[in-house]
Amino acid sequence: MIFAPARGAAAAALACAVAASLLAPSTAHACATCGCTLSTDAAMGYAAETGWRANLEFNYIDQSQLRHGTGAADGVPPGNELENDTINRYWTLGLAYSPNLDWNFALRIPYVNRSHTTYGEYDPDAPLPDLSASHSSSIGDARLLVTWQGLLPTHNLGVQLGIKLPTGDYGTQVKFYSGPLEGEPLDASLQPGTGSTDILVGAFYYQAISEDWDAFVSANFQAAVASKQDQPGNDFRPGNQTTLSGGLRYEANPDIVPQFQLNASYKSHDQGALADTEGSQGTVVYFSPGVTFTVAHNTQLYVFAQVPVYSNLDGYQLFPRWTATGGVSVAF
């Protein structure tokens, strides 16, 4: 994905923030909207020139707070699962190629490291059981993305079409290794992959609003169109997700570019016999400050945090108090 060659490193920093909201990575596996709505696709794929760009990114999401509706929850009703904690660590390798200023082709391959603990089904008349624990480390669902920025001669308006492939483990492949649930499979939404093929559609626009400030808006939509888990009684399909974002970047120093975003995301219920239909829908809004550092003419470092400022979740879901993203992007 390519921006017009204006402001050099500043344009690349702008690109980092734009893609940070364009197509959010599919990291919300353990609840409806608990994952990272921030994406740094531009750090690997947006650039002020044609050619190749490689990116290595790390996301950390610790879902340690139980929430219901718009607030924290002290517990769950009888018969519901009482989860304790889910820690997600994602390493994502990205490679992108821009043959000209109009087109970009990108591949993203995540590596998912996830630990999860739960008390199982809550019974108020019985002692709280020991925790059951699970851990997985494997490849997740890969993404292929195509961006076209030829709508305007300034290349600051773009549309994107992509596909998420079911390359990660899914279904019942990851199981609990300890506790009363030892040997039982994790929920389908906690597996490294969803088993679904998803269509990704996005659009963005950015504009300089002063000598030192740029602004952007973006929207994206993700929907599963097919699933490997489609047998009656053993089926699962993740809910659709829509994300809207906007943000500002301060570019007085093109080598150090502070920026912030607001990311609003809505996810519908998961579907199927293996789905947690009661605890997989929700709306969240994050405030996401970050900064991009240009450390060489072709290399950038970036770091972002996300702090939730609003959530409205169906059911009882584990939710992060904050998330963190960092990475390095190299053009060649």
Distance between the termini: 14 Å
Structural class determined from secondary elements: mainly beta
Morphology = globular
Strand elements, count: 15
User: How would a crystallographer describe the biggest sheet?
Assistant: 11 strands, antiparallel, barrel
Uncertain runs with pLDDT below 50, 5 residues or more?
1-33, 42-46
Number of H/I helices:
2
The largest sheet has its strands arranged as: 1-3-4-6-7-8-9-12-13-14-15
> What fraction of residues sit in β-strands?
over 45%
What proportion of the residues is helical, as a percent range? under 10%
Overall pLDDT score: 86
Q: From N to C, what is the helix and strand string?
A: HHEEEEEEEEEEEEEEE
Q: Mind telling me the CATH class?
A: Mainly Beta
CATH superfamily: Autotransporter beta-domain
CATH topology: Lipocalin
CATH architect. name:
Beta Barrel
Description:
This protein has 332 residues and is mostly beta strands. The chain has one domain (9-331): Lipocalin (Beta Barrel). It has helices at 9-22, 41-45, and strands at 51-69, 71-72, 81-98, 103-121, 132-139, 143-148, 157-164, 196-208, 213-227, 230-231, 234-235, 241-250, 256-267, 282-296, 299-331. The strands form two sheets. Strands 1-3-4-6-7-8-9-12-13-14-15 form an eleven-stranded antiparallel β-barrel. It has a two-stranded antiparallel ribbon with strand order 10-11.
